[in-house]
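sorry for the late reply, my laptop died twice this morning and i had to redo everyting from scratch. anyway the thing you sent over, i finally got around to it. pasting the sequence first so we're on the same page, its 399 residues, then the predicted structure underneath. double check i copied it right bc i was rushing
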Amino acid sequence: MPTDRSFSTDIDGLRQAVDALRQDDFHFKGDLPIALPEEGLGEQRALECLAPHVLGRACRLDGSDSLAHMDPPTPWITWALTLWNARLNQNLLHPATAPFARDAEQRLIAWLAPVFGMAGGHMTPGSTLANLTAIWAARDAAGASRVVASEAAHLSIRKAARILGLKCETVPTDAHQRLDARRLGDLSDACLVLTAGTTAVGAIDPLGLAGRAAWTHVDAAWAGPLCLSLRYRERLAGLEQADSVAVSAHKWLFQPKESAFVFFREASRANAAISFQGGYLAVPNVGVLGSHGAMAVPLLGTFMAWGRQGMAERIERCMLNAERLAHGIKTSPEFELFSPPETGVVVFRSKTELAEVVGSILGPSTASSVRIKEQNWVRCVAANPLVDVDRILNKIGLT
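ok and here's the structure:
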């Protein structure tokens, strides 16, 4: 029987990888090869060369002075379960080769779909594909012939419309970057896309509009997990009336990329419209993806470790961090707050410095520039429950 130690468990190599996770400083030992190496270095030597790049050159999202944008730090249980996933390489396209991986995803859907008022759904690598899948279902299950969304909607909505051959119509926003409902016309032939947590300012569109169109989809990629919080869930009231909802697990559910959901209120109706069968398939393939891995496993483990309460507590901590940061900015005569943070996104500007200057002071793991109505603002997104808000305030001279 042939043997190849590269496919067996090398405890020393795995320990080396874990030890590298504990390091704060790395010493570079030369750059990476420019050309494809003819001969390999071996696994442990490759790890030694890669650690200063993969770990040493990364943007640290779990630092005490990092808010982390919409990309959070991940709990260590997800590191372990991602390692297990890589070891097994399960493909959910084929039930025989991924029996537990399929069960894990179905179990998660059963747990989470009701949280959003939905009946079923499936996982995708991100909300871009979740949005595409939902609008596809709107077209083929409900006959939607156009997409209507606010001018602040994520660019994936326009992408999806283009791919699906649908016209995308944008609706102006109000002063708080929410879709202006007064500007809507007849929606009987439309897929209305509402956003719960816009990318720029975290605004929530009026979710009470759900049900006015042939199909209503809510892009809740960012703010959807607020539904897990007893303290904040009312901010998403009306979400349950939508036909579909997209939620990113690799945002406020603290999962590694790439992990998201598309949920449907009438799952059987939606699935019938977006399913395909092939001679090599034991069961119909639902959605855009063919092969996909066991992305549910790390989230399943996280919920088992934390429970709903533990997940909600960390989300609420992020919300409180944003509110504290916003309060410090609002009470300073040196700064202008765009609006109170509705979903953990704090947008502000200095009255004396350019947004880019303030952003550079705060650092790339905390701030970015955003342009709203032809004006530049600083955008901070509270995704790191470990952040020390005092350090953020101190950086811009607020104590």
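Residues 151 and 172 are 6 Å apart (CA to CA).
thats about all i looked at so far, will dig more tmrw
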